[in-house]
């Protein structure tokens, strides 16, 4: 009788006799990598909670961790490969196909483009989630080693590229990021960052709110500069509005003050630091008085902050998205590090320190490089063999040698996440073939001919290769898979391996030996700084014995040994940055601030990437897609709170819902990233029901940081008018 019941009833009956299990996991949805405990019964998730024994997150989680259940169970998530069918009536449908057909078709298209048009006819774009999945990091080269195209792009150039450049120039490696040691600091100067929403960024710092309050309780001070009174700014001891795009002027004025008033004391750093005298000369013209005309921060306040910073026993200067994704992003990050160096707060407990992760990629990976070749159309510089993402559309649409004819995207949605997304949306149908390694039919992958969906995040194991190097404390944690995937599903690393084998065979080459990611991590652990020759004796088996993770201690001073510059010194007078000070001076040569409205983005703790809008737990509650406008600007443009307005830039326009907010600096408006789910053909029902508009329909692909090529999506000049 039981066998004739519908399967859900059979499952419910079986479930009563299934044991409840607890799984230890690290949430991979943002840089905080919080430890979680997941209770399951069979295939059912019963609860997701913070792991109090995790030495890094200490039981803290944010709403994103709970949404791991939504991701795993999402009916819109693809489980098997699909190919696009263009119907005679103009509609599009999708057909499930076998893995062999999907992989063979993709490999053949890649080889055909390579043979007929050259390897540069193949483009590659990898999105932000690719660094949150260690299999994509360890195995993508199984494919791309055969396709050494110059047309590679990633989310790096709409995000943290200026951080990489500053680290490469000063410390000798793209991934040597100085990490704010907030747990021992006395003074924190923060620009363009909102860690209460992001949980840290290029700074893995779970439970940051408590850490800030602990710093304040012991007498420390947090000063935040931001054009919006963010959640973090509201918690700060002092918040200062700063005009978007002018942060480099403020930083140069702080550095000017340190040198001008004799406050520059590098301390023990002076033994391996050179060029500070040249830096002092270069910033001499950037007085606080001149900066005040453009930043909105008066000269005496700038001087006071410089003096407070220099007087603190341990101080941190840190800036993130707001100062990176603007026209002087690389210069901002260079100036930030120069402030830390000039005051002796680099490599100081309570200042900014370098991590020593258990799987230490820094000495084992290339340091990165810059401007070794340039883009075909606009002559933009590469970084680490990638071109600026803002150039992608033109490289598809402009004929000639090296024109992108085939595109591979992995874990990315650049139509919503790169400047002038509408132009890219128009360009993608011109491709001869497109393949996407992605679990969704979204605004970008809807143009693909083949979509290759990997397993659910809870169906594979995990180790955070990327974010332990950004952590506020040295820890290590390995997570076993929560659920076993079906035999006919593939992990992303298996997809890369299978494609690489097919391409290698077609080229008459021998495919690279395949080793699963966990084995690579085990080797990294055993031969790393806490491995078999140390007291920790770390290995994968050791981490399995400690599923909540192991504590490897606080960050410690490690210079000059940790430096990867050729002579183990920090050459502060970076020629490219010194030269860019001239561009800064020219940009702000007038006496008054630009009167244009300026657009900035914003982050919410329930959001990170565009695909997170497809989960009820993350979109429920009040709408978060409005354009925030100061009441004075509302009045000046005849806008009504909750009404509609036309937001227009040089490159596009969108109709937005406006919301009055005194948290905004007058003259600045704010629209969040990742919305714009109104385009036809996407299959993300919850996102469509919360569509919003894409801020990148009005950001400008021509509006860049000229030094780095990074997108300048903050500070974009816009106009605003009421919709009648």
Main sheet? 7 strands, mixed
Strand content: 15-25%
What is the second-level CATH architecture of the domain at 179-356?
Answer: 3-Layer(aba) Sandwich
Low-confidence stretches: 1-13
Which class best fits the helix and strand makeup?
Answer: alpha/beta
- What portion of residues is helical? 25-40%
Number of helices: 26
The first-level CATH class of the domain at 179-356 is given as Alpha Beta
Strand element count: 30
Instruction: Please report the distance between the alpha carbons of the first and last residues.
Output: 65 Å
> Globular, elongated, flat, extended or rod-shaped: what is the shape?
globular
Give the CATH superfamily of the domain at 179-356. Dimethylsulfoxide Reductase, domain 2
Strand order of the largest sheet: 5-4-19-18-17-6-7
**Named CATH topology of the domain at 179-356:** Dimethylsulfoxide Reductase, domain 2
Rg, rounded, reads 25 Å
Compute the average pLDDT: 95
Structure description:
With 724 residues, the chain is of the alpha/beta class. Strand 1 (20-26) and strand 2 (35-41) form a beta hairpin. Helix 11 packs antiparallel against helix 13 (288-295), helix 11 (247-260) packs across helix 14 (299-311) and helix 11 (247-260) packs parallel to helix 16. The termini are far apart.
């Amino acid at each position: 009788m039981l066998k004739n019941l519908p399967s859900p009833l059979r499952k419910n009956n079986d479930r009563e006799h299934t044991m409840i299990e607890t799984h230890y996991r690290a949430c991979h949805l943002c840089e905080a990598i919080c430890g979680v405990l997941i209770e399951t019964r069979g295939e059912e998730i019963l609860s997701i909670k913070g792991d109090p024994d995790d030495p890094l997150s200490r039981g803290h989680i944010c709403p994103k961790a709970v949404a791991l259940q939504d991701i795993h169970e999402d009916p819109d998530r693809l489980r098997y490969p699909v190919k696009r069918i263009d119907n005679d009536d103009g509609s599009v449908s999708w057909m499930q196909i076998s893995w062999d057909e999907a992989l063979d078709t993709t490999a053949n298209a890649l080889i055909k483009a390579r043979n007929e048009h050259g390897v540069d006819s193949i483009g590659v774009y990898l999105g932000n989630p690719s660094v949150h999945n260690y299999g994509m990091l360890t195995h993508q080269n199984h494919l791309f080693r055969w396709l050494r195209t110059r047309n590679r792009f990633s989310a790096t150039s709409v995000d943290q590229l200026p951080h990489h450049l500053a680290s490469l120039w000063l410390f000798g490696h793209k991934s040597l990021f100085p990490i704010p040691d907030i747990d021992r600091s006395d003074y924190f100067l923060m620009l363009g960052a909102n860690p209460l929403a992001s949980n840290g960024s290029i700074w893995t710092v779970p439970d940051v709110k408590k850490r800030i309050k602990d710093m304040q309780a012991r007498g420390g001070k947090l000063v935040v500069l931001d054009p919006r009174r963010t959640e973090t700014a509201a918690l700060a001891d002092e918040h200062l509005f700063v005009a978007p795009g002018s942060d480099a002027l403020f930083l140069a004025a702080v550095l000017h003050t340190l040198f001008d008033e004799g406050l520059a004391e590098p301390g023990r750093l002076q033994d391996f630091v050179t060029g500070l005298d040249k830096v002092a000369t270069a910033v001499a013209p950037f007085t606080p008085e001149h900066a005040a005309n453009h930043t909105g921060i008066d000269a005496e306040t700038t001087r006071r902050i410089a003096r407070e910073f220099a007087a603190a026993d341990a101080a941190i200067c840190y800036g993130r998205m707001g100062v990176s994704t603007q026209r002087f992003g690389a210069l901002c990050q260079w100036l930030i590090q120069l402030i830390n160096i000039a005051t002796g707060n680099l490599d100081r407990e309570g200042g900014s320190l370098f991590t020593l992760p258990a799987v230490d990629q820094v000495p084992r990976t290339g340091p990165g490089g810059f401007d070794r070749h340039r883009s075909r159309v606009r002559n933009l510089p590469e970084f680490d063999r990638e071109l600026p993402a803002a150039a992608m559309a033109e490289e598809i649409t402009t004929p000639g040698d090296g024109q992108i004819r085939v595109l591979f995207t992995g874990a990315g949605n650049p139509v919503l996440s790169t400047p002038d997304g509408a132009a890219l949306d128009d360009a993608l149908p011109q491709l001869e073939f497109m393949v996407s390694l992605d679990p969704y039919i979204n605004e970008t992958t809807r143009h693909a001919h083949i979509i290759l969906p990997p397993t659910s995040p809870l169906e594979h194991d995990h180790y955070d290769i990327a974010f332990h190097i950004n952590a506020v404390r040295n820890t290590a944690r390995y997570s076993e898979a929560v659920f076993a995937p079906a035999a006919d599903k593939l992990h992303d690393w298996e997809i890369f391996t299978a494609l690489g084998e097919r391409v290698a065979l077609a080229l008459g080459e021998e495919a690279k030996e395949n080793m699963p990611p966990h084995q690579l991590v085990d080797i990294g652990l055993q031969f790393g700084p806490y491995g078999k020759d140390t007291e920790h004796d770390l290995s994968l088996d050791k981490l399995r014995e400690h599923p909540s993770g192991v504590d490897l201690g606080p960050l410690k001073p490690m210079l000059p040994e940790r430096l990867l510059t050729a002579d183990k010194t920090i050459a502060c007078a970076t020629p490219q940055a010194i030269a860019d000070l001239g561009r800064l001076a020219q940009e702000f040569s007038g006496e008054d601030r630009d009167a244009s409205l300026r657009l900035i983005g914003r982050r919410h703790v329930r959001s990170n990437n565009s695909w997170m809008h497809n989960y009820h737990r993350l979109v429920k509650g009040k709408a978060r897609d409005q354009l925030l406008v100061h009441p004075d600007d509302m009045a000046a443009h005849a806008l009504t709170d909750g009404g509609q307005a036309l937001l227009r830039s040089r490159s596009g326009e969108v109709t937005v819902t406006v919301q009055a907010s005194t948290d905004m600096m007058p003259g600045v408006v704010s629209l969040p990233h990742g919305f714009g789910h109104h385009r036809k053909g996407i299959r993300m029902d919850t996102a469509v029901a919360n569509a919003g508009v894409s801020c990148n329909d009005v950001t400008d692909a021509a509006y860049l940081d000229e030094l780095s090529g990074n997108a300048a999506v903050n500070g974009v000049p816009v106009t605003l008018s009421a919709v009648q």
